[in-house]
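hey can u check if this looks right to u? its 165 residues, i copy pasted from the old doc so theres a chance i mangled smth
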Amino acid sequence: MNWTIIIIETLVMTAAFTAMILIPLVKNPVWWIHDYPEDIQEEYFKTHERVPSKFFTKTVLLKKGFALLVTLAVMLGLMKLASAYNFWSAFALSYGIWFVIDWYDCFFLDWVLFANMKSVRLPGTEHMDAAYHQKKYHFVQSLWGMLIGLIPCLIGAGVYAWVFC
């Protein structure tokens, strides 16, 4: 596998992920309400209409499911571009990229940007500084993200090995 291509792929995917998260978040923070800690959601719902915010709702599952399908398709292309040579190299590549993005999301987007950018706070929760700085919440969510990431990475590696090896 070509490490230069892998590093470039990881950087491009991280930038694309950042745009995919931040653009809708800045335009309409409620779009990602299901990713806010529960105490922030409850404060928001005191003054705003309740919208589906639990993970296993139709809206959230559609958003996350669509993102997983797109991720699967993109990962197949990245595996081919990086010249993965079998199932395990394809899996290592895709899960490695997933790993980097997941922890970048936790340690930078959630702990630094999300916690400090007033423009991404839900209306009526701007005063909840401590709630927006919950490191444990985002760390646990990232652990779940690592577990969920196994699904598209294993499927993608399997499809890649079946089609290209």
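The chain has a mean pLDDT of 91.
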